[in-house]
Model the fold of this input.
Amino acid sequence: MIDLYLIRHAESTGNVDNHIIGGQSNHLKLTPRGEDQALRLGKRLAGEAFQPDLIISSIAVRAAHTARIASKEFGYSEDKIEYTAPASKRQVTGEGKPRKEYYTKEAFLERAKDPLNFKPPGGESLLDVEERAHAFLEKSVIPRAEQYPSIALFSHGMTIRCIVRKILDAGADMAFQTVIHNTSITQLHYGKRGWQLVKLNDFVHLHGTEYIGHYG
Done:
């Protein structure tokens, strides 16, 4: 059995400048507010005596930094954090370019025809994202259940939404209609019945603070 905690990275510069296409943009850093969010997450988890057996992070700077800040608070050595590309965000066309140049009315209409399989030139479809992320869980997480029954995976909003959609076998719209806030916790459990959703988008540690709402 495994308890898997999917944690979205803290606020990044790409979240603030969301008129620019982010995509994977693995170089993007946390904002000062993002660093505070990661610290609040870590303090909350420390207060809950959270002790994962393993922490894995996306290779993106914003996810890795979130993992390091938070894990320090609950006593997990950053030297033990593993990094993996399959937990990365969706690869899209036009990273770093203004959204209005690519996200035209025609592009939205084309995506609406088949949102799961729509693939921008040179990019990934949502189905591509969920298949690579789910394959990572099946090949690199489940086989390690005996050694690591509790795992925290620091990843990205869309990637987390895709994983949840996949395990629930939900409609295509779920990937767009599910909200995943920065540093929120989504918990999955793997047992005899396969993957089950325990909780979704838990960001109580940010209540009472200023944060930009739902983005990306």
